[in-house]
Design brief:
alpha/beta; Rossmann fold; 6-stranded mixed sheet; 4-stranded antiparallel sheet; 10 strands; about 35% helix; globular; binds adenosine-5'-diphosphate; binds magnesium ion
Length: about 250
Amino acid sequence: MSSMVQLRNISMNYHSKEGEVAAVSQVDFCVQEGEFISIVGPSGCGKSTLLSIIAGLLPPSSGDVLIGGEVAVKNTSQIGYMFQKDHLFGWRNILNNVLLGLEIKHKKNAHTVAYAHILLEKYGLGDFKKHRPHELSGGMRQRAALIRTLATSPKILLLDEPFSALDYQTRLTVSDEIGAILSAERVTAILVTHDIAEAIALSDRVVVLSNRPATVKNIHTIDICKKEGSRRKSPKFAGYFDKIWEELRQ
Ligand code: ADP
Ligand code: MG
């Protein structure tokens, strides 16, 4: 199987007035097509830096990123994002917020607009197309933000702590919902999180990073069926949690 994303020996040093900060050191791993990967690591270890490098927004100090076998140079049309904030515009209704993603990427046409409507219907926002963002719950807004990105049919979705602004209860539901949407739409996804449970619940594999500069400590394949409801209830869940927790503590 060909890799969708290939990180080859990525290192990143920031240069500032105070001197040099080594943020990422010799990171090497692949993401297969349709795979859901999480990257966990301590705060400030270099997770967002790594995501920006994958996105082609930040050139690494050394190493390279291949997207679909080709060197990633501003491969932005193939990449979608989901951030902590939903970045929905208050003066636009939900439909027009979703269509904005298509407008920005110059992909708005009858076909893509129809797809946006399908996604809104399919994922429970069909009755809220004319509503403004403030009329929706935090979880619904995150779903709308996800649909805005999915409507552009990105090959890869990058998620940077997308649930951390939500309260704990909402966060559990929304992360499960979003996991189900991504697996139904077969999107290749890379999620950055500091929440070990979230990573295990959503991912095919979990990449554990060290303290700064981030190096790959371990990669866990999560062997829990995704179809039988929430993975959090699986007896295997605690085993993965303890192992990753221990690796992060060391
Ligand atoms: P994380 O997402 O894991 O919390 P980041 O990738 O944001 O970590 O940051 C990793 C390290 O690099 C931190 O020490 C941060 O202060 C530093 N850093 C991030 N961006 C810059 C920058 N533009 N210039 C200098 N240092 C930076
Ligand atoms: Mg970050």
